[in-house]
Amino acid sequence: MSRKRVLVTGGAGFLGSHLCDRLIKEDYHVIAMDNLITGNLSNIEHLFQLENFEFYHHDVSKFVHIPGKLDYILHFASPASPIDYLKIPIQTLKVGSLGTHNLLGLARNKNARMLIASTSEVYGDPLVHPQTEDYWGNVNPVGPRGCYDEAKRFQEAMTMAYHMHHGLETRIVRIFNTYGPRMRLNDGRVLPAFLSQALRGEPLSIFGDGSQTRSFCYVDDLIEGIYRLLLSDYAYPVNIGNPSEITIKQFAEEICKLTGVELKLEYQPLPKDDPQKRQPDITKAREVLGWEPQVGREEGLRRTLEYFKENIHVEPKEARS
Ligand code: NAD
To answer: What transmembrane ranges does the database entry give (predicted)?
Structure first.
């Protein structure tokens, strides 16, 4: 029997490349598409010699053509960290809107199932804690994060419209902070920033008083949840993330312990619209997908630290946003 064919947009990025690996392992024919605006071919170069892997260098905000049949489309193309989308806000809005529209059209044309990578940022600075999928969010559309949050909210609305109006098979994953090997060392988020600063022997930068919370999901757990959602028959949004919550200050202490460096903190002003609390309610993922995270923070951080140690010399240092 011929292999199922799947298109992964953003395939050269952090999450997209892990998805490609998983789909290859499951014996799909994988077509990765990426314009490399934040991604890197080194994330997928190990796949290039495989006969069931193809790569297209292309911007999905422009017309997308793929010859032959397609069974699934996973739309992961989008700048994802504040440092990126603050630099390229228009491209961020375009890939969430025009890109999603192009791919929904392609999915319809090919009769493929489409899964979109949405985000916990659709909840904005949430007034409900932890966040369930039926919470509508608290987003400032004209704030600095508006370009990302609203692009993702539009992406969800457009995807749901194709599902309702055209009967297209669609899936929506709301991803919470995820970490692991291949995440960029200088992507501006707190976890890579702390690991890099600790490895360089610099003080860890804390924005505000460090009492704000985050929860971090290890990449293998996330990919497992996405794969289960893809194969499920559930068309509404599902949170995938790790509910284990920690304050930024406690997290800084954990990183110093893990890396064996003395705790040195440097306090800086809190950026505008920085969410105070972020924690997924994963009841739906448990019920619908039978999924919950398996990798604890200690183990996940240890695996990520190995990657950072190997790559710390490669990437230039950059300020955190
Ligand atoms: P990433 O920056 O590593 O990967 C995104 C990839 O998309 C990059 O390879 C980039 O070059 C590509 N891309 C961007 N615009 C494109 C375009 N117009 N055409 C083609 N390719 C384009 O980011 P990531 O962390 O892997 O995020 C992947 C997806 O998951 C994004 O949609 C992001 O919004 C979502 N997400 C990620 C997280 C997380 O914690 N990493 C959390 C929530 C949501």
So the answer is: none
Q: Is it the case that residue 243 has pLDDT exceeding 50?
A: yes
User: Which CATH number describes the domain made up of 190-214+244-279+295-311?
Assistant: 3.90.25.10
Domain ranges of the chain: 5-179+217-240, 190-214+244-279+295-311
How many angstroms separate the CA atoms of 231 and 254, rounded? 36
pLDDT at residue 4 greater than cutoff 80 = yes
To test the pocket of ligand 1, the residue of 36, 37, 307 to mutate (highest count of ligand atoms within 8 Å of its CB) is 37
Q: What is the mean pLDDT of the chain?
A: 94
Tell how far the Cα of 15 is from the centroid of ligand 1, in angstroms: 7
User: Residue 319 above 80 pLDDT?
Assistant: no
Does 76 sit in the ligand 1 pocket, CB within 6 Å?
yes
0.90 cut: is pTM over it? Answer: yes
Q: Which CATH architecture has domain 5-179+217-240?
A: 3-Layer(aba) Sandwich (3.40)
Whole-number Å distance between alpha carbons of 43 and 109 = 30
